[in-house]
Write a structure and sequence with these properties.
- This protein has about 375 residues and is an alpha+beta fold.
- The chain folds into two domains: about 55-205, Mago nashi protein (2-Layer Sandwich), CATH 3.30.1560; about 210-375, no CATH class.
- The chain has helices spanning about 45-55, 60-65, 120-130, 170-205, 355-365, 370, and strands at about 70-80, 85-95, 95-105, 110-115, 150-155, 160-165, 215-225, 230-240, 250-260, 265-270, 280-290, 300-310, 315, 320, 330-335, 340-345, 375.
- It has a six-stranded antiparallel beta sheet, with helices on both faces.
- A hairpin with an 8-residue loop joins strand 8 (about 230-240) and strand 9 (about 250-260).
- The longest helix is centred in the middle third of the chain and has 36 residues, at about 170-205.
- The chain is elongated, with a radius of gyration of 24 Å.
- Mean pLDDT is about 85; it is low at about 1-55 and about 290-295.
């Protein structure tokens, strides 16, 4: 999931065609990222996709093993027979980015971990892969129940090699995987220690802020694409502590229409720590190479909206807005990607559907022809 510069633990790379997001919750003692975004499909392709998704066959494992990015350095996919419908992936890219997770094809990425290897570790693994010699031969038979199946892909310095194994791996291969796993475990430990430090800091700074009357805790974040223009509808919802103490009321925190110039969306999400009153929603656009482009030949632009639960404010591009003065916003990214924010003097407190939110914008901004023409993608 990362939109890298915000509060997120990971990033998602998506089609700009249609955005349809599953809600995200903010459970205790965790960082959360919201989104599952899917490209547009014709009805026939939707039907085909549904059929494919229900095929929990071993072919899904081999399909994944046969495809990899050009930046891959090392990748293993593993499961214990019989194929359970998911597999464990471990990978390392040529920039030192390590990743592992349980992959449920077309459905979920679970218990993911990431790490950034130091340059000396990267070079060590590169040299080990260059000198890794695995005899070519026919693929092993299908694994027996209880037997480990591994698909290995790696770059040997000249080309990619693919090998399959049943049972234990060659010692040279296992040594390389152990190095990557050790780095992942170190990074996970460091993140947990940072979380504990952050938790202590939040308690010291804000005390038991989650139970204060009037505070609205984030529970749900949704993002939808718009048509016919390039736009997004963001809705952030939560539960408000009532006065006197009673069951929390489900309310809308804020909603925003975001319009942007021509440029594909490459990352989008919302998240924060459950013990931190500050949470964020952000989107990243990656433009073709131009002035100020990075080494990869792209030029990235980003928008971030910060919500502060104690203050009841949102902040965009350094400007802070009191939600008591209106919790509906129209944000237009100019041609130079500067956000121009309009806070509407209107409130929508009740939680509703994305269509209900869009209808409220239309009812409030009756004189805006472009907004009257908007539809959910």
């Amino acid at each position: 999931m990362t939109v890298h510069s915000f509060l997120y633990t990971s990033s998602y790379w998506i089609s700009p065609e249609v955005l349809d997001v599953m809600p995200v919750s903010f459970p205790a003692a965790s960082l959360c990222l919201a989104l599952l975004l899917v490209p547009a499909r014709s009805p026939a392709k939707q039907q085909e996709s549904a059929v494919t998704r229900n095929k929990n066959t071993i072919e899904r494992f081999y399909e994944a093993a046969d495809h990899h990015s050009d930046t891959l350095l090392l990748r293993t996919l593993q499961f214990t027979a019989p194929y359970p419908g998911f597999y464990q992936e471990l990978s390392l890219d040529n920039n030192g980015g390590a990743f592992t997770a349980r992959i449920v094809p077309d459905w979920a990425v679970q218990a993911s971990q990431t790490a950034k290897l130091e340059s000396d570790r990267q070079e060590q693994i590169r040299q080990m892969l260059v000198h890794l010699t695995i005899a070519s031969g026919p693929s092993p038979p299908e694994p027996q129940p209880g037997e480990l199946r591994t698909a290995l892909v790696f770059y040997n310095g000249k080309t990619y090699e693919r090998h399959d194994f049943n049972g234990s791996l060659p010692v040279q291969v296992q040594d390389i995987l152990d190095i990557v796993r050790t780095e992942l475990e170190k990074a996970e430990k460091a993140r947990y220690e940072e979380f504990l430090r952050h938790h202590d800091l939040m308690e010291e700074t804000y005390g038991d802020w989650q139970t204060k009357p009037g505070v609205v805790l984030v529970t749900d974040c949704r993002t939808r694409g718009l048509k016919p223009t390039r736009g997004l509808l963001l809705t952030l919802s939560g539960k408000r502590n009532e006065v006197p103490p009673a069951a929390p009321a489900l309310v809308s925190i804020y909603s925003a229409l975001v319009f942007y110039p021509d440029g594909p969306i490459t990352g989008i999400g919302c998240g924060g720590s459950s013990d931190d009153p500050l949470s964020s929603w952000g989107v990243t656009w990656t433009l073709p190479k131009g002035s100020g482009a990075d080494a990869a030949g792209t030029d990235k632009r980003a928008l971030e909206i910060k919500y502060h639960a104690i203050d009841g404010t949102v902040t965009v591009a350094g400007a802070t807005y009191q939600l008591a003065h209106g919790n509906m916003f129209v944000i237009r990214m100019t041609e130079d990607w500067t956000p121009v924010v309009r806070q509407i003097d209107s409130r929508q407190d009740e939680q509703t559907t994305e269509q209900g939110v869009l209808d409220q914008f239309k009812a409030t901004l009756r004189d805006d022809v472009a907004i009257q023409q908007l539809e959910l993608n």
